Amino acid sequence: MGTFGGPSSSVPGPSVKIVNKHRTTIGEGDTPTSDLPDCFFGDCFIQHAFTWQDGVITDLGALPGVNSSAPNWINDSGVIVGVSENGLIDLLVGGPEINAVVWKDGRIVNLGTLGGNQSFGFSINNRGQAVGVALNAIPDPFSLFGLGTQTRAFLWQNGVMQDLGTLGGPDAEPQNVNTRGQVCGNSYTNSIPNSTTGIPTLDPFLWERGRMLDLGTLGGTIGASFYLNDRGQVVGTSNLAGDLTFHPFLWSEGVLTDLGTLGGNTGQPNWLNDNGAVIGRADLPGNQIHHGFLWSNGIMTDLGTVGTDPCSVANTINSKGQIVGSSTTCQSCLHAFIWEDGGPMVDLNTLVHSDSGLQLISAADISDRGEITGDAVLPNGDTRAFLLIPDGDCDDDCENRIAASRNNTVPAQNPAVMRQNSKPPADGVNQFRNQLMRRYHIPGQRPVLSD
Predict the structure, then answer these.
(1) Secondary structure E strands in 273-414
(2) Is 428 helix (H, G, I), strand (E, B) or coil?
(3) Are 101 and 82 in contact (CB under 8 A)?
(4) Over the stretch 364-420, which tens digit does the pLDDT of each residue have?
(5) Contact of 357 with 351, CB cutoff 8 Å
(6) Nearest-CA neighbor of 373 among 361, 384, 363, 382?
(7) Where are the domains of the chain?
(8) Predicted confidence (pLDDT) at residue 449 exceeds the cutoff of 60
(9) Counting CB atoms within 10 angstroms of each CB, which of 99, 318, 365, 391 has the fewest?
């Protein structure tokens, strides 16, 4: 999908809506202007949010000044929520201030904050309700994103930002809002740090019509919701008793279900569709590698990997049960994949023309019509956002390439790759901070590796 004259472009994700029903796709592209020393998105160039439709890329701009911006979600009306630098410096952290914004009808709207220095827009539904986090001015040693003051979940609608409150502690943050206006997220339940994690108890919540419901945990002191479907089902992770391991969970109609793992200690969901099918990644026995999984009707299926890649992660599943994600080294992405019809996994690089010069490394979103968005790399290492559009039925050559990809053997466990049980007990909060740092550089925090 190109750039704005700089070296790279990419799409947001996973666990975000990148392409809507009109095939309007969002991403962010570099300009030629240097961003040193702030490096908003890692490669130290000013970047702007964009839309891409029918071959036309549109620069959405940023707040006034020489600022970077990035989108996080697009609804079916083409309204986009995301973030932009505002040209000011946050003296608490020593870097640029970032504000939640909405792009609508060719305009960018600054959603502001709750009295603090920063805010971030995460999700928007088809009713135009947006959610995100906003800081207030109250000092907070346990600030969820490490930004110095209390982090609060907000709902923005009709030009008004509403603080959704907490479960009793100082901080809360949302993940997404569904078409019914329900919001899932996470909140401290008190201000007392636990001996096992060093932070207050954190529980997932479901907010609806002014009421925040505590969804509980699987026995530990940290639980984190990741995504909410239109049926009001919530997926996330929770520490088990003792806070040494964590499992994915599904909350549905008041029942919290431990989805288990693929034989190892930890797992993490990324998405669920409206049929209640959950996808993500989970450890295998030995906790040295993880694979993408599909959980449906009480059964967890190992999606495998591409060829001899040791690890994989499933990012999104559509209403037809098609799953996309990345086959990885366990630390970096190698091959974007699609998994459907009972598998096995197919390398998306085998289904596109080889003259593109791109290596598709991660698929972030798949629409119900089968359009796939994600990130690719050029031979020189620059990244590019891509959109794949289904092009009719497979011919014989296409079928042969699928068969060749599926006939690759799934690798044995590789003891040399990153150990998944090396994560600290406070992994839930680290996931929030890592999620934010993958999108925007926070001064004073080290970069995050992610597959």
Answers:
(1) 278-283, 290-296, 299-302, 311-317, 323-328, 333-339, 346-347, 359-366, 372-377, 383-388
(2) helix
(3) yes
(4) 999 999 999 999 999 999 999 999 999 877 667 767 766 766 665 433 332 222 223
(5) no
(6) 363
(7) 275-424
(8) no
(9) 391
